[in-house]
């Protein structure tokens, strides 16, 4: 979650950056990236230095880029050198600033904020949600199965995570289409004006919801936040808004991009689809491997002091992006990294980052992917991309295809 359309910009390369370490990778928007993003990010290991400086683009701020798993692993676990403060990429008024919570709260306070919402997506809670996720998946499939085709992203990949999320937040499912539009507008709009307008709509809606839940508490995440007391004190209005807003942004597009990427691959690889169907007991390894090869986002930090990685001197105030999808293709950690191998020895992927800020929704996301895979393959085991389809990817900080037209039968 290192950048969006609103956050990027090309700035002069700082003087301390050696010219040989400048590499304009155009991650998130260059033609090679957009043609096949995961292939491109895997290939960076052969093209770019392991630590390089990218001048920035309309989606990413100028920053040091880390390709190696071990480097990202270290950065994510050392907030004393690499802070997430100010890393939130969304348009905010500098005169009316609010932090994106919990990402922009550092340890030790961070834990108090996570404790407010973690129980709503804990492993135990996610198991309790499994039935309702399965039900929603089947309701969505019911709507298109007899047609012999669907536009997977629109008909399944987006509505499913939005429905689950609305349930967790205790918000009405009737808001489904609006939430999809807002998430797409904030994360993928290339036009700053569109992003600003969507930001205004989201702000207005969330503020109204926050007011409602303050008056009428319920069991959902918005209510938990509104009434939460990190360290025993109620949160300010700005904190509450930053918390609710970030859950909305973090929990939607990431899951839809993941599902859409996976289903393009399944459509193109019928024999691997069959392998998944034939080995139901291996489903958890299947999910981990698919999350590794289709990890969808990035992690941005800022240096609190000068620091050196692999002999590269970085200075206080420099930004550092862990290119998590590339780290998950690091050949030193995952031999034959681009091979999709469901029997790989277990090694945690960085799809959900790591350290204090590792993804709060990881258990939920895994469950959503698992249920979708199981239910879709159970009911529609044979499908392919519609004839003549050319998959196009969104530019931006969450990697996923725009459309996934499938057909079967
Ligand atoms: C496949 C789906 C998902 C992926 C790949 C993903 C990825 C990530 C990553 C990489 C981070 C770390 C960001 C950083 O360090 O800068 C993160 C953090 C976070 N994610 Fe997710 N995420 C997913 C789903 C979700 C869901 C479903 C939710 C909410 C229900 C969620 C909520 C959060 C929150 C709140 C944080 C910030 C945690 C903190 O700062 O303590 N994510 N996610």
Describe the structure in your own words.
With 409 residues, the chain is an alpha+beta fold. The chain has one domain: Cytochrome P450 (Cytochrome p450, Orthogonal Bundle), CATH 1.10.630. The chain has helices at 31-35, 37-47, 69-76, 109-117, 123-144, 152-157, 159-169, 176-188, 192-215, 221-226, 237-268, 270-278, 283-293, 324-327, 362-379; strands at 51-54, 63-66, 82-83, 149-151, 299-303, 307-309, 312-314, 319-322, 384-385, 405-407. Strands 1-2-8-5-3 form a 5-stranded mixed β-sheet. Strands 4-10-9 form a 3-stranded antiparallel β-sheet. A two-stranded antiparallel sheet has the order 6-7. Helix 7 (159-169) crosses helix 8 and helix 9 packs across helix 11. The two termini are 39 Å apart. The model is unreliable at 2-6 (pLDDT under 50).
Mean pLDDT: 93
Low-confidence stretches: 2-6
The largest pleated sheet is described as: 5 strands, mixed
CATH 2nd-level architecture = Orthogonal Bundle
**What percentage of amino acids are in beta strands?**
5-15%
Identify the CATH homologous superfamily.
Cytochrome P450
Helix count, DSSP H or I runs of 4 or more residues: 15
The unique ligands bound to this protein are: protoporphyrin IX containing FE
Note the gap between the termini. Answer: 39 Å
Which sequence of strands runs across the widest sheet?
1-2-8-5-3
Please provide a brief summary of the model.
The chain has 15 helices and 10 strands.
Keyword list:
46% helix; binds protoporphyrin IX containing FE; alpha+beta; Cytochrome p450; 5-stranded mixed β-sheet; disordered N terminus; 10 strands; globular; 8% strand; 409 residues; 3-stranded antiparallel β-sheet
